[in-house]
Design goal:
It is built from five helices and 17 strands. By secondary structure, the protein is α+β, with helices and mostly antiparallel strands. The protein folds into two domains: 129 residues, Diaminopimelate Epimerase, Chain A, domain 1, CATH 3.10.310.10; 122 residues, Diaminopimelate Epimerase, Chain A, domain 1 (Roll). The longest helix has 15 residues. The chain starts with a strand and ends with a helix.
């Protein structure tokens, strides 16, 4: 079966977007999705996103990590599917709502920036040398003196596979403050490597910094693949009105044959 796709990225965090409103692709297709994401034998991506019908909202987002497994919320993926829906005329408005694995999200396109409302965050828990926070996906955030270590991936992988997180895994973020800049590196579970950006990781990082600085508002974070912003309001011990803001860009389009990739 021939399937059309488009490739989008948010600050280098890249996704294969597929219109699955006709349900031509089964959700139980881990091997195919993993091979599509393979950067040598497939198209290459950090994840697969299926655009599907929703009975009440504008659409349903179904997300898979590059290991082919359905995963928790992907912030940059959420921003990319909003741009994908608008670019392809699936919706004829710039403010919309959709359902993802963690619930309903509001989103809007303003100029070239996609703003995505993330889930409220109730707790930011100290853990070891860092903090654990769930922004739709679980994240460990640690403030470091420097994050340019060649050993980042190995150190992050050790945390991700630590006894406390081994069963479900956790995404690992190392943060460095350089004057007025916030620099970030993220290791993503499911990808099992460093990615150029992670939307839920940027969100988790910004909220941790807000908590440490005892303030809310807006924080700009520089990931390896580009710049993203997070806006939030303090809500007791947590945060509400959390928005992830940044570009979502179409890079190319094409088609693949499911029979060829399903061997």
């Amino acid at each position: 079966m021939k399937v059309e796709f488009q490739k989008y990225h948010g600050a280098g965090n890249d996704f294969i977007m597929i219109d699955n409103r006709s349900a031509k692709l089964s959700h139980d297709n881990q091997l195919l999705f993993a091979r599509l994401c393979d950067r040598h034998m497939g198209i290459g991506a950090d994840g697969i996103i299926l655009y599907e019908e929703h009975s009440e909202l504008d659409f349903q987002m179904v997300y898979y990590n590059s290991d082919g497994r359905q995963s928790s919320m992907c912030g940059n993926g959420g921003r990319c599917i909003v741009r994908y829906a608008i670019d392809n005329g699936f919706v004829n408005k710039t403010e919309l709502s959709f359902e993802a694995v963690d619930g309903v999200h509001q989103a809007k396109l303003i100029d070239d920036q996609v703003e995505l409302e993330m889930k409220d965050v109730q707790d930011i828990e100290p853990f070891g040398e860092g903090y654990v926070v769930d922004t739709g996906s679980p994240h460990f955030v640690a403030i470091k003196q420097r994050i340019d270590s060649d050993d980042f991936v190995n150190e992050a992988r050790r945390i991700r596979n630590g006894m406390q997180f081994r069963n479900n895994g956790i995404n690992v973020n190392f943060v460095e403050r350089v004057e007025d800049k916030v620099l970030l590196r993220t290791y993503e579970r499911g990808v099992e490597d460093e990615t150029l950006a992670c939307g839920t990781g940027v969100t988790a990082t910004a909220l941790v910094l807000m908590e440490l600085d005892e303030k809310d508002g807006e924080i700009t974070v520089e990931a390896k693949g580009g710049t993203l912003k997070v806006r939030a309001s303090r809500n007791g011990s947590g945060y509400k009105n959390v928005w992830l803001i940044g570009p979502a860009v179409k890079s190319f389009e094409g088609s693949f044959n499911t029979e060829v990739l399903s061997y």
